[in-house]
Amino acid sequence: MAAAAAAARSPLLFLMVMLIAAMMPPPAAEAHVQIGAYNKTCPQAEEVVLKEMTAIVAKSPELAGAVLRLFSVDCFVGGCEASILLDSTANNTAEKDAPLNRGVRGYEVVDAIKAKLDAACPGVVSCADTLALAARDSIRLTKGPFIPLPTGRRDGNRSVAADVALNSPPPGATIADIIALFANKFNLTAKDVAVLSGAHTIGKARCSTVSPRLYNFGGQNGSSDPTLDANYTDILRGQCKPGDIATLVDLDPTTPAVFDADYYTLVAGKRGLLSTDAALLLDPTTSAYVAGQANATSSDQFFADFATSFVAMSKLGALTHHKGEIRQVCSKVNPPSSPSSNAAARSYHLTATAGLAIATLAVALVL
Ligand code: HEM
Fold first, then answer.
1. Transmembrane residues, as ranges (predicted)?
2. Do both 21 and 35 map to the same domain?
């Protein structure tokens, strides 16, 4: 009330206060993703994503795993802000061209879905949310849980290859390295490590990833990783011949296209494909989780745990409100003059608030 009276007495002061407020960022408490963020602006968004993902996975089932991984590598480097989708430019090598991301695939899926979303609601849904929802749907389309997912992420404009190694477990990472990385960089727990690794119940890895466990392990001619079941090693040697870097092998050969808790039975039986899967047995928390799920009679607990950890991962570094932009093309930041670019959004914010201040001043003068 006192502020309103002061404003009426001194409209110029009020105008200055409004202009300063316009230049300040929104309070941190506002910066949240939320369930149904597109309910008003694009109510059919989640339906459009599901319909397109259903068609894509029906045609190419292996893309479910590809998209799920694409989302995780986005979130772990700079947050879930679609930085993985940006192309390198003349002056910058982007995340997607970092050596650790060489096997990442599924970019075309996001482009196809974004095109459908833009046809339904032009310029409304971000690439970050397109990817997040597509990853969420890849889980349900492979018979995993339906996970209600908060949306409202906007797209970032930083994608630097050097950031990838700083935020990813390096090849040969120990379980202690992974748990420390998750705790220190992402505020995620050892349980989250065990639960999210369960995503390896679908999808594939390249022979270049697997072969170090199969041949000349530890630099010794003819030896293989002793933590890998010997019969499974023989099967994998049949799939990944020496020198083959490109062939893809199933992470979960028992039920490769089904999102279930079977992964933990494999890991417990020394049949986890990646060395980081096998490493889950070397920490008390993660090994207890593996044992619990390997002996579970249903996937229910794993599904509930996965939903919790997946939502936590999906919130990492999310950009909301006037931060970031809604990219027109997922592989490129918007040109500076476009309506949804960072600069344009800021200038819109300023113009709108200044307009409001001028209108208020006019009313105050009339009164
Ligand atoms: C604990 C940390 C993790 C490590 C060290 C890790 C490592 C890997 C590696 C090395 C591959 C195979 C890549 C290749 O050979 O091309 C892979 C594939 C995959 N990862 Fe992970 N991952 C981790 C966490 C996650 C998370 C959090 C998710 C999702 C929630 C995920 C989902 C997948 C999927 C679905 C694939 C198969 C991709 C495809 O089919 O193209 N991973 N991961």
1. none
2. no
